[in-house]
Each structure stands twice: as C-alpha cells, then as structure tokens.
C-alpha cells in the first residue's frame, strides 16, 4: 500500500505526537480523574484498613503494638460481643427492610393514583427522607422517653401500659427499626413510584378490555413490570440498614448495656472509646464482607427471577 | 473631654504599668493565631464572650471551635494522635485522659510555665489555686493542664418535698436510702435518680465506692471489683436505683438525670456540683429555687468525695506554645475565674469564692459550703488510674446495666474484673 491513508474520525493524525497519543487513548484519559479520586478515597483506605486489621494497634504509641496476622479475626470469632453485634445488625435489618418495602409499595400505589393536590401530598410524604438523620433520631428519642415522652402519654390515653421503649432490651431494636422505617419508607415509595409511572399503558388497556380485575392487573402486569425497581430499592435499603450508624449512636449508643450495639456501632466503640484501631479495622472488614455478600446475593436472586 | 479621657487612660496605665512591665510582655506574640478546641461546657459559655478582651490585650487571634462533649473528646484525640501540630490550646479532663495523654507525650508539662518569670505575670498567683485540684491534673509526673473548673459530688434534693414529709437532709448513705424509700411515689416523684447508663455511671459510683472503703485497683494494680466492700457499695448504688429510681434508669446519664429532676419528677439525686447551673436555673428548670444541696452522704468509711477537673492544656506539637500559655494564663486569671463562678461554675481559685461580688449575689450558701468543704479531702481518682479508661469504664458499665436489669452483683462484677484485668495486663 503506497497511497496515503485516508483520514477518518477516531484515527490518529499522522505525526501528531501528543495529540495523536491523546486520540488513541481518549477512553482512558477521560475517566482518569475519577479513577484517581476513587483510588485515593476508596482503594487506598481499604488497603490500609486491611493492613491495619493484621495488627494489634492503639492510637497511642504508649500502648503496645505488634503484627498479629489473622489474630484480630480469630479474636472476633471468639468475642461474644462480636456475635451479639452481628445478630443485632441482622435483626434490625430483617425488621426494618421488609416493613419499608411493604409500606413503600403501598404508598407508591396510592401516590400513583390521580388525586387532588397531588404535588402537595407527594412532597409531604417525602419529608421524613429529606430530614437530617441525627435530628430525626433526637426527636424520636425525646418522644420515646419513658418518663417524659409523648408516646407513653398516647399509650396511657388509649388505656395501654406505658412502655420502656429504648430502655427495654427486648424492645430497643424494634423501636430503632421503627424510626428507620419512618425515615426510609418514602425512599422506597419514591423509587417504586418512578417504576410505576414509566409503565406503558397498553397492557393495562388490553387487560381492561379482557375484563381483568384490578387485583389481576396488579398481580400479572404491575408486579412483574415493577421487579427492576423493587430490586433496586431492596438493594439500597439492605446495604443501608446493615450499616446503620447515626440513629443508633444518637438514640442509644448501643445500649442499654449492649442490647442495640450493632456491628458498626461496636466497631465505633472499639475504635474511638477503646482506642483499639487494629481490632476495629478487622471488625469493619468483616462488616464489609457481610454487606458485600448480601448485595451480591440480592443481585443473584434478581437474575433468577 | 477627649483630653480628660486620655488623662484617665494614662493614669490607669501608669498605675498598672510597673507591675506588668516587670513581668510579662503581653503583646510579644502579636499577630499569632491560636487554634483552640473547647468542650460545650458551662465554663465555655461563661468565658467565651470575653475572648475579644484577650485578643485586644495581646494582638493574638483566637480561632475557637466548640463541640458537644463526645465529639469534642474524639476530635482532640484524633488531632493529638496524629501529631497535634495544628492544635494549640484545648480543654482536657485529666481524670479521663490525663494518664494516656501524659504517657503518649501529647501534652506539654505546665509546671515550668507556671514558674517562668518572663512568660508569667507575678500577679497571676498560682498559689491561689486549690492544691487538691492542681494535684488532680498530675499524671506520670506531668502537670497536664491548668485547672479551669472543678466538681465534687453532691446530694441535690427538693427542699419542699423533704419539708412536706418531714424528712431530715440525709447525712449518711443509710439515711439517703431511707429518705429515697420514704419519698418514692409521693407527689408523683421517684425517690432518687442516679446515672444507670453503663460507662457514664461508673464515675458517679466512685464516691459510693470510696465511702464504703474500697478502691478501683488492688495494691498490685489489679481490678478490685470482687472486694466485699466494692460489692456492698455496688449493691447500695444499684439498690437505690432499682428500688426507688425512675423507670428506664439504664438509659440515664447526667443529661437525663438532671432533666428529670428539673422537670420535678424526682426528689433527690447525687451527681457533680456543676449541675446546679442546670437544675437551679429558672430557664431550664421547673424546680428552680426549691433545690437544696448537701455534701455527699457518708458511708461506713466516712465522707469520701471525688474531685474532677477540667483544665486548659497545650499540645506538644503546637508551634505557638508561648502564645498558648499566654491564653491559658489569661483564661485562668482571677477576673475570669470570678466570671465563671458568677455563672455557678465551681471556680478553682480560693480568692474568688471570697470576692464581694460573689458574696453579694450568692443565692445558696449551702451549695458553696457543700462544695468547698469537700475539696480538701477529695479523691482525684473518679476514674480507674489506667490508660484504657474508656474500655475499663465500659466493662464495669456493662456489669452495672446487667445488675440493674436483675443480674447477680457478685457474678457480674467477677466477670467485669476478669475483663478489666486482661485490659490492664496489655498495658504493661
């Protein structure tokens, strides 16, 4: 071939030096800033955390530090408080997330109907979600106060027993889950509402002509079409619920005793109160494994459905 | 008119000049900016409005950050453990962090500063500080800070309720128990409130422990929780709370205890003297004016209060240590100590308690009396003397919660003792 190559878009200009290099590698150059930031803020800390988890280390050099290999992990597996924390994390998630999904679905179906003052109603429903979690937690803690709180006042007015709420070791996790449900149901509703609104009209029209009841239309058209949105909401909420920190730390600090000390809260205590950063790194690595496993599990389930 | 002002100013300068010129050059660090971390504490509220006076006097700029206590402690810890170069002065609670910070080499030893003739004004008067309070800042041979306020434990009670039911102010723990029993349920109040929330309860348990003649550690530095006197003290503390306390005691630290008292839901509580500023303030309390104060009741081993202190400290990594000392010196002078005392924050200087301004506005001589009478004999170990204070308090706190929930005191304390001994063995 002796003829000069015809120049087309995307091909390097002859003799262009840097600009031709740029042209050839543009798919790497554009995402580079993002990759650098991700590396610095996610990969590096993760690697550092893994290194730290193999050491017995305190924040102070006055306390001993040494390499312990997997020692922190074996210690965690024989630490009753670790198992307690893992169980409480699961318990919290298993109460909060299904309730959010159910209520969120109901709310989305309701909001999808045509009604008066639609915008206002939707905005009002979304309010809990946009409030600051710490503020939400403080207000709920005040309402649940067994001596001065308004919830016990309501219970008494209804002729029911006063409750200890957060002071009752058996009730503290459900009570915290209640706050989580109050705050995050709107998020589920919002995602599902978006799913509902993007549905095509034709299958519903066809169903109506064929004489399907509204339950049948929901069961055989809405439900299958809503699967992607449902799984998206489920994944987000599962991950978030497993690593809930703010409302628990604000409302109970893991108490009474360690009755609401989930894994994330326990790790915070071992790190910032007991100053054992090596052990904390190991606990957080285990938390990461659990969260990743759940996320992957949900994803696999979704492919099967 | 202007001339007259100048004349007055000049005379004023002449009158004070000799005393200061001999000692300290206040504007030697003009232009420096000091980064100061403070706890959101009544002391801070009382003194912070006057910081511009210091900036004017010295030409030093103060960059002050205040945080609620838990975040504050964490922030200081993180900054000091990473070198503390950007931190100059900060509040320190020596009984909590003193040993760890001193052993880690994170704080300046304040002793040399207090005797430095070029940096310290002759009229600052360190001898004016209560010796027991100064001693409570010393760990590992280092004076970790200059005290700014101090607390002793006290019995707070409702004068109206005790009068109504003809109950004498308890002088011993036995009388305290009897009074709590007699008052419990009367007029819708609980007999007594104490901290029951895990780790936070341990510090307020300490005077009960001292008063029963026990201590945190044995002579050879092991946890002393199975000492029969320790168990008796724990039974007294948790028994008061279980039998005559409010529901949900296991979630109550000082904000909950003082709030409940301020809302008129409890007849008595024992906690730090500082909390007068909450429960006797008409703005925050419905029982203001009805609050009585008494020294901490005596136990079988006598009257054994603790003393806690907040101090101002200087970061070892600070690049402005001398300027930070000027700030510390100014903040702890007589004038500022009087200012905090006038806001019901217990001052650390003897002289201000006798100041005519304080005498004139003093509304509760019994509070003053109760606090001051306890200072001389007070024990600074309101926490176990270990570096891992947080972890040890947590271990004992877990036991306290379980006891309050009905567990066996001796068994739970034995388990806590083992946990604590493991922690201590790692420190050596």
Strand content of chain B: 5-15%
Strand order in the largest sheet of chain B: 2-1-3-10-6
Low-confidence stretches of chain B: 1-22
Tally of strands of chain B: 10
Query: Please, what is the average pLDDT of chain B?
Result: 92
Gyration radius from CA atoms of chain A, angstroms: 26 Å
InterPro entries (chain B): Bact_solute-bd_prot1 (IPR050490), SBP (IPR006059)
Organism (chain B): Deinococcus aerolatus
Keywords (chain B): Signal
Protein name (chain B): ABC transporter substrate-binding protein
What would you say this structure looks like, in words?
The complex is a heterodimer of chains A (305) and B (428). With 305 residues, chain A is an all-alpha fold. Helix content of chain A is 69%, strand content 1%. Chain A is built from 14 helices and two strands, in the order αααββααααααααααα. In chain A, strands 1-2 form a two-stranded antiparallel sheet. Chain B is of the alpha+beta class and 428 residues long. Chain B contains 20 helices and ten strands. Chain B has helices spanning 2-21, 42-47, 51-58, 69-81, 94-104, 111-114, 131-135, 159-164, 173-183, 198-211, 228-244, 254-262, 276-279, 321-331, 334-342, 350-353, 356-361, 365-375, 389-404, 409-427; strands at residues 33-39, 61-67, 89-92, 138-139, 142-143, 146-151, 153-158, 268-272, 291-295, 308-314. Chain B has a five-stranded mixed sheet. The chains are: A mainly alpha (305), B alpha+beta (428). Chain A binds chain B through residues 59-64, 145-148, 162, 164-167, 169, 252, 255-258, 269, 272-276, and chain B through 74, 77-78, 81, 100, 103-106, 197-199, 246-251, 259-260, 263, 265, 387-388, 390-391, 394, 398, 401-402, 405, 426-427. Chain B: It comes from Deinococcus aerolatus.
């Amino acid at each position: 071939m002796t003829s000069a190559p015809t120049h087309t878009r995307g091909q390097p200009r002859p003799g262009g030096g840097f600009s031709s290099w740029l042209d050839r590698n543009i798919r790497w150059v554009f995402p580079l800033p993002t990759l650098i930031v991700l590396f610095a803020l996610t990969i590096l800390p993760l690697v550092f955390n893994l290194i730290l988890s193999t050491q017995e280390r305190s924040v102070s050099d006055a306390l001993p530090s040494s390499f312990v290999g997997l020692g922190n992990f074996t210690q965690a597996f024989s630490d009753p408080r670790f198992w307690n924390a893992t169980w409480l994390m699961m318990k919290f998630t298993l109460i909060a997330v299904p309730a959010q999904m159910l209520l969120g679905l109901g709310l989305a179906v309701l909001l999808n109907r045509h009604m008066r003052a639609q915008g206002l109603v939707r905005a009002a429903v979304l309010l809990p979600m946009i409030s600051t979690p710490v503020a939400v937690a403080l207000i709920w803690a005040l309402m649940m106060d067994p001596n001065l709180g308004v919830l016990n006042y309501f219970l008494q007015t209804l002729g029911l027993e006063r409750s200890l709420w957060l002071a009752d070791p058996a009730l503290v996790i459900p009570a915290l889950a209640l706050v989580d449900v109050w705050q995050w149901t709107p998020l589920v509703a919002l995602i599902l509402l978006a799913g509902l609104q993007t549905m095509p009209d034709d299958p519903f029209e066809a169903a109506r002509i064929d004489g399907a009841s509204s339950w049948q239309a929901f069961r055989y058209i809405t439900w299958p079409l809503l699967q992607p949105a449902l799984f998206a909401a489920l994944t987000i909420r599962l991950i978030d619920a497993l690593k809930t920190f703010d409302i628990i730390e604000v409302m109970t600090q893991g108490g009474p005793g360690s009755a609401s000390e989930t894994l994330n809260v326990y790790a915070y205590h071992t790190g910032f109160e007991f100053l054992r950063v090596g052990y904390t790194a190991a606990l957080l690595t285990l938390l990461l494994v659990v969260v990743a496993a759940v996320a992957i599990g949900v994803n696999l389930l979704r492919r099967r459905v | 008119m202007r001339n007259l002002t100048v004349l007055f100013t000049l005379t004023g300068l002449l009158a004070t000049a000799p005393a200061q010129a001999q000692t300290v050059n206040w504007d030697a660090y003009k232009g420096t900016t000091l980064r100061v971390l403070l706890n959101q504490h009544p002391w801070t509220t009382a003194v912070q409005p006057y910081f511009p006076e210091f900036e004017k006097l010295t030409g030093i700029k103060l960059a002050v950050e205040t945080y609620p206590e838990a975040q504050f402690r964490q922030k200081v810890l993180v900054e000091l453990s990473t070198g503390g170069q950007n931190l100059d002065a900060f509040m320190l609670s020596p009984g909590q962090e003193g040993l760890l910070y001193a052993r880690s080499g994170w704080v300046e030893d304040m002793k040399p500063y207090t005797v430095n003739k070029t940096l310290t004004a002759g009229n600052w008067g360190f001898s004016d500080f209560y010796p027991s309070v100064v001693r409570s800042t010393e760990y590992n041979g280092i004076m970790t800070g200059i005290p700014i306020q101090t607390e002793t434990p006290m019995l707070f009670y409702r004068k109206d309720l005790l009068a109504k039911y003809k109950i004498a102010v308890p002088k011993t723990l036995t009388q305290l128990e009897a009074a709590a029993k007699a008052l419990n349920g009367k007029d819708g109040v609980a007999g007594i409130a104490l901290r029951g929330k895990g780790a936070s309860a341990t510090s307020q348990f300490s005077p009960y422990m001292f008063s029963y003649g026990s201590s945190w550690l044995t002579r050879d530095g092991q946890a002393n929780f199975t000492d029969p006197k320790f168990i008796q003290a724990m039974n007294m503390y948790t028994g008061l709370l279980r039998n005559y306390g409010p529901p949900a005691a296991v979630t109550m630290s000082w904000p909950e205890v003082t709030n409940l008292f301020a809302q008129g839901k409890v007849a008595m509580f024992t906690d730090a003297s500082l909390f007068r500023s909450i429960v006797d303030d008409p703005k925050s309390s419905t029982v203001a004016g009805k609050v009585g104060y008494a020294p901490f009741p005596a136990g079988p081993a006598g009257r054994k209060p603790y003393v806690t202190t907040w101090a101002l400290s200087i970061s070892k990594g600070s690049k402005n240590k001398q300027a930070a000392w000027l700030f510390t010196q100014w903040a702890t002078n007589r004038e500022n100590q009087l200012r905090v005392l006038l806001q019901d924050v217990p001052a650390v200087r003897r002289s201000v308690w006798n100041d005519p301004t304080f005498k004139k506005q003093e509304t509760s001589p019994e509070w003053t009396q109760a606090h001051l009478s306890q200072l001389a004999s007070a024990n600074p170990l309101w926490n176990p003397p270990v570096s891992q204070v947080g972890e040890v308090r947590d271990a004992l706190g877990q036991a306290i919660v379980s006891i309050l929930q009905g567990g066996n005191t001796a068994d739970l304390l034995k388990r806590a003792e083992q946990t604590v001994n493991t922690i201590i063995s790692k420190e050596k």
